[in-house]
Design goal:
about 400 residues, alpha+beta, five-stranded mixed β-sheet, elongated
Length: about 400
């Protein structure tokens, strides 16, 4: 029998009473508005309602924002152990998200925050309010719209199990340990991705660094696989080794939704429409804005708009090798943008950049190596969200299980 089972058998053998938040609260009140422009780096610690969605989890012990108290009309404070609810949001599913404050400062509660004072274990209450059952209660009766609202009466009516304090604390200990293990796993996976990415970038830079006339480059890591001489590498302009494909101007408003990606130049398609203007392999270089110079490779029907497309002259250079060479130059390409307002790169400037062109067999060999590295990095990157999601679902299952009790008969 676990410690938790022992405590339940000893302290609540006949079941656990379920109570409304209004029944366990010693006080409930709304915060007072804190304007964005009044947030400072020092002063009184405070919480604005949006931070509960974006910054704080089940509990927190330090405020990320501060303000000067004389800027707040009718200031309202929360202290150690208080539960904060946000009563304005954009999602029915997340409305009335809550968090427990376990720090020891006296802090200001911003507008659209409801503060609940009580005598229970604050982390336990916060865990209980995060269960599927509590979330259903929070969203009950709410209608999807641009802005979703809750209220003090709605929050007061949420029902949660309230076992004796020793049982609450044991459950908190179990869930805190589970949360810590999940965070540790996430950190380890993130470090693995970073290490793989750095390894990939090292070999990419090594493989795509070519000799100047009279130099020979040989690496201990790849000596047995790839060697080249300076007279094997030609330096040619982009316009000499590729055919330029200019994108077409388009607006989302005048198009039909489909499954063809529209390539504006960002890392992801801007949106999807029902027609393409290019099929097959192509490299797209973003033309304007902050992402100017971003390089992407496509081998499917797409619609190129604010960007330059390049099709390799295959008797000189392979499409994928040209992609890797340009991808390795993104910072240089981005630095080429000019103009006030929305800066852009000119097609003429791009066409005149000099690129190294080794023999085709060397190109293909380099592409094979870089494709393997890129696939490995992508596999790990794709696996991280899936693993985290699996752990989160496992955590939510056990959390809801731990926080479901038999009611007294």
């Amino acid at each position: 029998m676990s410690r938790l089972d022992e405590l339940i058998k000893e302290l609540c053998p006949d079941g656990v009473e379920y109570k409304k938040i209004g029944e366990i609260a010693t006080n409930i009140f709304r915060g007072s508005g804190i304007k964005r422009e009044d947030v400072t780096e020092d002063g009184a610690p405070c919480v604005r309602y949006g931070e509960i969605y974006t910054t704080y989890g089940i509990w927190f012990d330090k405020c990320v924002s501060h303000t000067h108290i004389d800027k707040v009309q009718s200031p309202k404070f929360f202290e150690h152990g208080d539960i904060l609810f946000v009563i304005t949001g954009e999602s029915v599913e997340d409305i009335a998200k809550s968090t427990a404050y376990v720090g020891h400062d006296k802090c200001l509660a911003g507008g659209d925050i409801v503060v609940v004072k009580h005598n229970q274990d604050p982390k336990y209450i916060s865990y209980a309010l995060a269960t599927m059952d509590a979330r259903k209660q929070k969203s009950a009766g709410k209608v999807k719209s641009k802005v979703v609202h809750s209220s003090v009466p709605s929050i007061s009516g949420i029902v949660i199990p309230v076992p004796p304090l020793p049982v609450q604390r044991e459950i908190v200990s179990i869930l805190d340990n589970f949360t810590e293990l999940t965070a540790e796993l996430t950190s380890q996976l993130s470090k693995e991705i970073t290490a793989r990415q750095k390894q990939y970038e090292y070999y990419r830079d090594l493989l795509l660094t070519f000799p100047k006339p009279g130099e020979t480059i040989r690496s201990d890591q790849i000596r047995s696989r790839i060697t080249w001489r300076s007279n094997d590498v030609k330096w040619l302009c982009l316009k000499e080794i590729s055919i330029l494909f200019r994108g077409e101007y388009i607006t989302q408003k005048g198009t039909q939704v489909g499954d063809i990606p529209v390539i504006l130049g960002g890392q992801e398609p801007a949106y999807y429409i029902d027609r393409s203007n290019h099929e097959g392999e192509i490299i797209v270089v973003a033309r304007s804005g902050a992402s100017a110079g971003f390089v992407s490779y496509w081998n499917e029907p797409i619609f190129v708009t604010d960007g330059f497309g390049y099709e390799a002259k295959k008797e000189i250079i392979t499409q994928k090798f040209l992609y890797y060479i340009l991808k390795n130059m993104e910072a240089t390409l981005n630095a080429m943008k000019r103009g006030a307002g929305v800066p852009h790169i000119s097609g003429e400037m791009l066409g005149n950049i000099l690129l190294p062109v080794p023999p085709l067999d060397i190109q293909r060999h380099i592409v094979v190596i870089l494709d393997r590295f890129e696939a490995l990095c992508n596999d790990i990157t794709a696996g991280l969200p899936a693993e985290i999601t699996a752990r989160q679902k496992q955590y939510e299952y056990y959390r809801d299980k731990l926080l479901t009790f038999k009611k007294p008969s």
